[in-house]
Amino acid sequence: MRILDRLKNAWNVLTRPAVYMDDDELKEWLGITGTNPDVEKEVTYYTCLKMLSETMGKVPLKYYQETPKGRIRAEPTKITRLLSVRPNTIMTPTTLWTTTEMNCQHYGNGYIWMRGTFEREKYGGHYKVLDLWPMQANCVTVYMDDVGVFGGKGKLYYQYNDPKTGEQYLFRSSEVMHFKTWYSLNGIMGKSVREILQDTVGGALESQNFMNNLYRQGLSASMALQYAGDLEESKIKALQKKFADKLSGPKNAGRVIPVPIGLQLTPLKMTLTDAQFFELKKYSALQIAGAFGIKPNQINNYEKSSYSNSETQQLAFLVDTALYRLKMYEEEINAKVLSLKEEEAGYFYKFNEKAILRTDTKTQMEMLKDAVNNGIYRPNEARRYLDMPDDPDGDKLIVNGNYIPLEKVGTQYTKGGE
Description:
Blueprint: H1 3-15, H2 23-30, H3 43-58, E1 61-67, E2 70-73, H4 78-84, H5 93-107, E3 109-121, E4 124-135, E5 140-145, E6 155-161, E7 168-172, E8 176-180, H6 193-196, H7 198-216, E9 223-227, H8 233-247, E10 263-267, H9 277-292, H10 307-337, H11 340-344, E11 347-351, H12 361-373, H13 379-385
Antiparallel strand pairs: 1-2, 1-11, 3-4, 3-8, 5-6, 6-7, 9-10
């Protein structure tokens, strides 16, 4: 396709209200029915991706309003239902946020397409979002229109290249939620840990392949085959295959085989201990986990951990790693989803990070009891944390009767006004 035709196609996409497709076409366009062959097999890298992706999936998104009396839960809207109940016909919010974070960590950027239509009103119009779809990050190209080719100088545009049909789709920045990693030199595109630590991740993957091959060989080292005289290349390969089939593999471990006169098998001494294989592998795993912001106990390294220490590491993971991700998601959601009127009215979306720090029943009851007895929570608010119904008399703050205001401390000792 010529560049002029591409520009015309892009202009047509931008000038019409929205790109609309039925569900079957949309699934095929997104490649949901296919499989992704690019799957990392290194266990530490996989564990880190799993931890970060599941963290975003397990934290619920809430809709609030800031009022003169404080923050309150706002009445849900249609877009709120898409974000917190059902983003599209085949996904849950957990799947949406998990998939987006998975793309973000693996490719450096995650995208959500807000499919919708432009509704005209008497005094203008607004973009009505119909559903939300995660986009394959490796199929998205981001363009900055520096000269106004698409009619919006200085604006971002997102091009999706369908890997099956080769079709190209261009979206405005207002139609796409763009999430990125912390590593971004231009503030627009993020870079993944996989790209930054390519040698480290690649080395860890090679060590995993080495262990897999060693298991396939029955944990036996390679051998040198000594023979007298000169053999043709075909006979050498035949000998190699003959002894390899009889000596390699778990089923042949400890097996005794006869060796003809004139041939000698000499094992090549190779020990994992001498090579410090496991020490180096553990060191590489900690490096990869540290780059992701994952704590050692979260990759099953409990050498220097105890029960209380693991709980502290979980809190450190929330403060050092998860809070940054949550804040970045909240800012992008509020910027792309809320209208100017909603922002001025104090509406906003926020993830409930307390879901990560759920404690045991005894500790939870003590915390709620202290909050209610000290006038922080109303009884009904504490009951809602336990998924219990409200009580008719539970909407009043309760405090200890022995408490007095700070400015009246000492008045109980005065007598007769003295």
